[in-house]
Amino acid sequence: MITKSVFGNADFSDKISEALGNVQFPDGPTNLYQPIKYILSLAGKRIRPQLVILGADLFGHSNIEEVVPASVAIEYFHNFTLIHDDIMDKAPLRRGQETVHQKWNDDVAILSGDALLIKAYEQLAKCPAVFVPSLLTTFNKVALEVCEGQQMDMDFETVESVSEEEYVNMIRLKTSVLLGGALEMGAIIAAATSEQRNKLYNFGENLGIAFQLQDDILDAFGDPATFGKQIGGDIIVNKKTILHILLKQELSATDSEIFASILKMTSSESSEKIAQMKELYEKYDVLSKANALKEYYTQCAYTSLGQIDVEDKRKEELFSLADHLMYRAR
């Protein structure tokens, strides 16, 4: 997915996988550490830890060993949030496999997630000492905002309507600040200026918004063979995704009644529920509208990256990554 760089022959993904594979967890308690090993073994796209390295690489930092601990910390934190989010969402699958709480139970998943967060801070302590205060400032800010975003997401479940602006702010906090923070942490280790770090963070933040909008789109319109999660899962649980929000604001009075009846359908009617909701999506051209919004934030990301004062050649990998994320099938 990501090409070679000044860091050497192995690509960034392989380097991070190697670092994760070399981490030693205690043998026991088994029910604390085995779930951690399990979630890390599911081998997601490793986007966030790669962004840490890309953030450093952009500014010419050539010592990958100084960057890897921060990359691992970001990966640990991300997987900690996945474990806990899956509990809250009652999700059965993660990356095509059983979620931790499904494979063990909620109590085990909560505690294993907590331990993984502590392990993230343990990794940050291994970074060059001169950068640790700035790294912690960025990491803690992002971590708290992710929690705020998750709470907003849960709050949305109990309100009748969510505006497009409210939704975008929620996914900015829940998803995109971590991408921006990962890039900024790499830039910190590369000793980039505050102005350059901010532009890189803005690139990551806007890319993250577009990334989540694409995830919403794939949930309804993705290929079940490649998506890794249940297609239509958001529809089944009446999740207020961008598709749901864009549809609701366009509905006629008659279709509003149909929409309301679809929301009331039970889990035993899930296939029919998905089909009927997608019919409304198609009737109101919701997919095109969601794609247009995704493209807007993608272009905002590209603009921020273009403004960073380094040679264009050094930006190629970030542009390529952005293109890959925005037009992915899973």
TrEMBL record:
GO molecular function terms here?
transferase activity
Keyword list (alphabetical) reads: Magnesium, Metal-binding, Transferase
Identify which cofactors the protein needs according to its UniProt entry: Mg(2+)
Report if keyword Magnesium is assigned: yes
The source's superkingdom equals Bacteria
Please tell me which top-level EC class this enzyme sits in.
Answer: transferase
- What are its E.C. numbers? 2.5.1.-
Which Gene3D superfamilies does its entry note?
Farnesyl Diphosphate Synthase
Looking up PANTHER family in the UniProt record yields:
GERANYLGERANYL PYROPHOSPHATE SYNTHASE, SHORT CHAIN ISOPRENYL DIPHOSPHATE SYNTHASE
Regarding protein family, the annotation reads: Belongs to the FPP/GGPP synthase family.
Query: What name has this protein been given in UniProt?
Result: Polyprenyl synthetase family protein
